Amino acid sequence: MPRTAADMFYNRGYRVGSLQPGDLMFFAPTKASRPTHVAMYIGAGKMIMASSSKGIMITYTSNTYWKPKYIGAKRK
Q: What is the pLDDT of residues 19-64, one digit of tens each?
């Protein structure tokens, strides 16, 4: 896998509309900017990610902080 979220988003996998466990979810500060964060969908409306402030965490895809930053998902 590439090192950066942007390289993963633009250069790998297939875009998906319906999330399945294992899909990579991409987030950006705005819908028009390049992705800066990646999480993995684990099912049941949850994702796992690394947070600089909280370490590894599991949260809901409907999280009020992350949901507006979501720009799409990819599957290998």
A: 999 999 999 998 888 999 999 999 999 999 998 898 999 999 999 9
Q: What is this structure's pTM?
A: 0.90
CB 15 within 8 A of CB 74: yes
CA distances from 16 to 5, 51, 56, 63, 76 (A): 16, 24, 24, 20, 10
- Position 11 scores a pLDDT of 82
User: 48: which residues sit within 8 A by CB, 6+ positions away?
Assistant: 39, 40, 42, 56, 57, 58
Q: How far apart are the first and last CA of the chain?
A: 10
Decide the pairing of beta strands 24-27 and 70-75: antiparallel
